[in-house]
Amino acid sequence: MGKVVMYSSVSVDGFVADENDQPGPLFDWLTGGDVPLDDSGVLKVSQTSYDYTRAYWDQIGVTVVGRHVFDLTDGWDGKPPGAIDHVVVVTHRPPPEGWDPGAPFHFVDGVEAAVAKARELAGDRTVEVAAGDVGGQVLAAGLVDEVRMDVVPVVFGSGKRYFGSVDAQHLLADPDVVAGTRVLHLRYPVRR
């Protein structure tokens, strides 16, 4: 069975978006290099970031997001981002009216059920959980194996927190650290 990884780009002060759900410069590192990260031609990173990020992205089978992110992205038009096989959406509401039932999106009530469904779909591949409120809930439930963050040199001051509303201490192991251009890639195994 694959790992469950909480992931996002994040400001130095711990935010994944500003108060208006805008990422600001958090993704600038994804377009500031010269090595294509995918086939789109849009994402170009430094060689160091490519080596780190591409290896991780190639392991992801399923992404878990909250309904808020799903709505902000318009459900990626029914196509999972980054060539991921499936998206599991944590929500108490049904799919949007007119949603294609054949799209590889699964609407699940509760984080435990969402992670169980994602693990089933991912098999031995990685389950990625978007940081923020849902990611914090999955961490609090003890279901996260690893925390990954791409720390970008910007201070937001306020906004949407990487760990959402987590209000208890969680110990992480020593980080694996890779310095890219305009980004610091951190990977922390979760201590059990």
TrEMBL record:
UniProt GO molecular function: 5-amino-6-(5-phosphoribosylamino)uracil reductase activity
Residue ranges of every copy of the Bacterial bifunctional deaminase-reductase C-terminal domain listed in the record: 111-170
Superkingdom of this protein's organism: Bacteria
Any single biological process term in GO: riboflavin biosynthetic process
InterPro entries (UniProt xref): DHFR-like_dom_sf, RibDG_C
Name of the molecule in the record: Deaminase
